[in-house]
């Protein structure tokens, strides 16, 4: 599949960037820069013929390990090492989607431990006195943040876009989102990133696929091999201060989930009760970003 890749250099973040939240930032950018009527037109396009599809972000050069029938390994250490592998290089991914997990037996991710690792850590910050603008004595907060296991701090993350219609604004929006912060805790300095490069490339797909792996969260549909999570996101923009600041919860399949048929998910209505504003509907982006897999 031909895609446009956006390479991001991340600071500390509360969670790796994911397609629905990135799309939400794009929606608010349209609202604040081009107005409410333009946003309605943009949302209408995504209801029927989306101008582009977004993936979640993954370590550059890697994709999520597909949820496939597991490889049976007798050696305990090898089995534990195999279980920890979360990301596959593009080369290994291309083999796995064609040959199955059997291809992992001699993959560098298992043999040499070359798969990137994401570490969950704690970051402490001081409380701020909003009157004086200075640190407040005796007040400390601890935030949960994610770090790549990258001592040289050279590892970037990549978001892929399958562009169907002209969408030249994508790079600009991602740069602005990175400046102001992505996701939770952006107001206290987390979630910053920089777009360091963009390129056109081909993502691997299996010949004559029998199934499809998604690179973005989507609604579970039909037969397949997938992991589920319950999600209730927070409203963005000025709706973050609404009476009910959280979206309606729902169940979704995570990145790497595999389906026998391409899911037909699009936008999901997650408007809370009461709505943040009269007549407003809140939408969650759940289009699958599919690559062919052969099982």
TrEMBL record:
Pfam family, any one: RAMPs
Concerning InterPro entries, the annotation shows: Csm4, RAMP_III_fam
| Keywords for the protein's UniProt record, in alphabetical order | Antiviral defense, RNA-binding
GO function term, MF aspect, one: RNA binding
Domain of life where this protein originates = Bacteria
Please list the GO biological process terms of this entry. Answer: defense response to virus
What range(s) does the CRISPR type III-associated protein domain occupy? 18-194
Which family, according to UniProt? Belongs to the CRISPR-associated Csm4 family.
What is the name listed in the Swiss-Prot or TrEMBL entry for this protein? CRISPR system Cms protein Csm4
Q: Which organism is it from?
A: Meiothermus ruber
